[in-house]
């Protein structure tokens, strides 16, 4: 097992930069090498589960799609339920939805209406915090479902895109934890 003080360096060493993807000028942060490494993936899950416990979370919300990959093992390790936040139209039954703006248009996310209650404290998990639009919409969706936001945790924050500043008001004092900041 990796010592917790070495986890950020281990995680960063397993993230691959892919130039000009998905379009020219973008440096994509590929986490698939991290997911393929059982030591790194396990260490990431352990640290995020510790954050979940420290915030008093009762549920984990994972954002489509890489937030599913990270959030599900965290929920299992922390002994919590897992709630997927999906793109609109992907969930059957009654849903709550939240629209948000993107640089190039708009999008919408959903959760099942009955998955969260006012008794829940929710830790929202995703892989990367970029501009913060999806995370902000997810926080709003959790609140609209009646639950309390315990915090937001991400593997990596792209600090130059200003997502943290965008989320300050939305989080209303709940912690934002980024294991790596680039």
What key attributes describe this structure?
Rossmann fold; alpha/beta; seven-stranded mixed β-sheet; two-stranded antiparallel sheet
Concise overview:
The chain has 182 residues and is α/β, with parallel strands linked by helices. The protein is built from six helices and nine strands. It has a domain of 126 residues: 3-Layer(aba) Sandwich (Rossmann fold).
Q: Do you know the CATH architecture of the domain at 56-181?
A: 3-Layer(aba) Sandwich
Rg on CA atoms, Å: 16 Å
Helix content class: 25-40%
- Give the rounded overall mean pLDDT: 95
User: Quick one: biggest sheet?
Assistant: 7 strands, mixed
Strand residue content: 25-35%
End-to-end Cα distance, whole Å, is 25 Å
Helix and strand content put the structural class at alpha/beta
CATH topology of the domain at 56-181: Rossmann fold
* Helix-strand pattern: HEEHHEHEEEEHEHE
Low-pLDDT runs of 5+ residues are none
């Amino acid at each position: 097992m990796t010592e917790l003080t070495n986890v950020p360096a281990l995680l960063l060493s397993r993230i691959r930069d892919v130039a000009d993807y998905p379009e020219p000028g973008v440096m994509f942060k590929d986490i698939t090498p991290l997911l393929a490494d059982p030591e790194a993936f396990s260490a990431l899950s352990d640290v995020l589960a510790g954050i979940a416990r420290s915030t008093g979370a009762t549920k984990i919300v994972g954002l489509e799609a890489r937030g599913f990959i990270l959030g599900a093992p965290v929920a299992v390790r922390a002994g919590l339920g897992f709630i997927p936040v999906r793109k609109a139209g992907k969930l059957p039954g009654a849903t709550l939805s939240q629209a948000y703006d993107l640089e190039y248009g708009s999008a919408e996310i959903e959760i099942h209406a009955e998955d969260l209650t006012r008794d829940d404290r929710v830790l929202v998990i995703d892989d990367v915090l970029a501009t913060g639009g999806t995370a902000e919409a997810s926080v709003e969706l959790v609140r609209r479902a009646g639950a309390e936001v315990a915090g937001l945790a991400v593997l990596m924050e792209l600090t130059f895109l200003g997502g943290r500043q965008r989320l300050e008001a939305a989080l209303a004092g709940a912690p934002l934890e980024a294991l790596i900041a680039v």
